[in-house]
Amino acid sequence: MAGRVAAGHGAPRGLAGALGRRLARLPAPGGARGGAPAGPAGPVGGRGSFAAPGAGAGAGVSGPEGGPEGLAGGPGAGAAPAAAGGGGVRERLVLIDGMAMAYRAHFGAAAKWGGAAPPREEGGLGTSAVFAFVGSVLTVLEMRPAATHVAAVFDAPGKTFRHVLLPTYKAHRPPMPEELRQGIPRMRALLRAMNVAVVEVPGVEADDAIGTLVARGVQEGLDVDIISPDKDFLQLLGPRVRALRPAPRGTGHGLVVWDEARLLEETGLSPAQYVDMQALAGDHADGYPGVKGIGPVWAQRLIKEFGTLEGVLENAEHVQRKSVREALLGPGGAESARLGQRLARIRTDLSAPVLRKPGQKYRFSAPPDGGEALLSTFHSLNFEAGVQRVHSLWGAR
Question: What range does the domain containing 171 cover?
Answer without folding.
Answer: 12-20+88-261+346-394
